[in-house]
Amino acid sequence: MPIQYYIILAAVLFCIGVVGVLIRRNAIIIFMCIELMLNSVNLLLVAFSKMHYVTAGNDNKSLPLNIGSDAQIFVFFIMVVAAAEVSVGLAIIVMMYRNVHSTDVNFLNRLKN
Amino acid sequence: MTATEILFWLLSALALFSAVMVLISKNPVHSVLWLIVVFFSISGHYILLNAQFLAIVNLIVYAGAIMVLFLFVIMLMNLNSNTEPQRNSLVKLAGVVAGCLLLTVMVSAVRSAGEISKSQAVMNEGDIGLIQNIGKVLFTDYVVPFEISSVLFLSAMVGAVVIGKKE
Questions:
Q1: Helix and strand tally (H, E) in chain A?
Q2: Pair A3, A48: CB distance under 8 Å
Q3: Residue from B34, B36, B40, B66 to probe the interface with A (highest A Cβ count within 10 Å)
Q4: CA-to-CA dists, residue A100 to A75, A93, A95, angstroms
Q5: Which DSSP letter does residue A104 get?
Q6: Among A6, A23, A70, beta carbon nearest to B91
Q7: Strand, coil or helix: A2
Q8: Which end of chain A has the least Cβ crowding within 10 Å, N or C?
Q9: Residue B69 and residue A67: Cβ atoms within 8 Å?
Q10: What pLDDT digit, counting tens, does each position of B53-110 carry?
Q11: Sign of the C-alpha dihedral, residues B108, B111, B115, B116?
Q12: Does residue A52 sit at the B interface (CB-CB below 8 Å)?
């Protein structure tokens, strides 16, 4: 499969996430759109790892066979960081709901009170 | 058109449709369910690219743990489509136009890039995504970041508890 298809698919998913962050006011939906953007980047990294695998393999047969594994390790670490981020972010949203009884981000436009 | 290509287009269409449905659903619970569909289709893409470890981790961590956490928080707050705050339509239109412009810039940059025009992502073969190879690389070259991520998890846990506890 040509790599452009994957790049364009990931770009469309990323832009859908950006539009979601811009047009929604619910903090949880905005957070979910950020997860969508992270996942589009993950998909692109995996596609690039398979592309790099075949280009490096064609050039030099003596290279080790796990030539593209680094990208997949990066995806693994992105998932690790996303899990930690979600736990802290949802705790912040719950605390915000406890204070203002809403998840509307427009209530956060002032830091005081 | 081979079976792999048919699966690629089906999964891509499913991912894009579900991602749009995440945005236009009024009820936050429906948004979470559509986002789970997106994660399933992205896991299908990983399987097509023969990255089985990431496909399973994506399902377990994202579709399993993180989305259940989102659903739990939404149901704890009793959010539904009646309480959903709406931006006015001018801001929505501006957001959609800005996203489409960003997409135009990205797509035209990809289309004009000559070096990648002949590059192929190899499907259904190659064993770099198997657990054996990923594990070897993770525990030899990337063992220090792996250990640091455990500290990250510990601090995230402490942070979530400190933020979430009552005064």
A1: 3, 0
A2: yes
A3: B66
A4: 36, 10, 9
A5: B
A6: A23
A7: strand
A8: C
A9: no
A10: 999 999 998 888 899 999 988 888 877 767 677 777 888 899 999 999 999 999 999 8
A11: positive
A12: no
Give CA–CA dist B157/A6, Å, rounded.
Answer: 35
Question: Which tokens is A4 given?
Answer: 């452009």
Give all domains of chain A, ordered by start, each with its CATH number.
Answer: 3-105 (1.10.287.3510)
With beta carbons less than 8 A apart as the criterion, state whether A50 and B46 touch. Answer: no
- How confident is the prediction along chain A (113 residues), in pLDDT tens digits per residue? 788 889 999 999 999 999 999 998 888 999 999 999 999 999 999 988 888 776 665 555 555 566 778 888 999 999 999 999 999 999 988 888 888 887 788 777 776 65
| Interface ipTM | 0.90
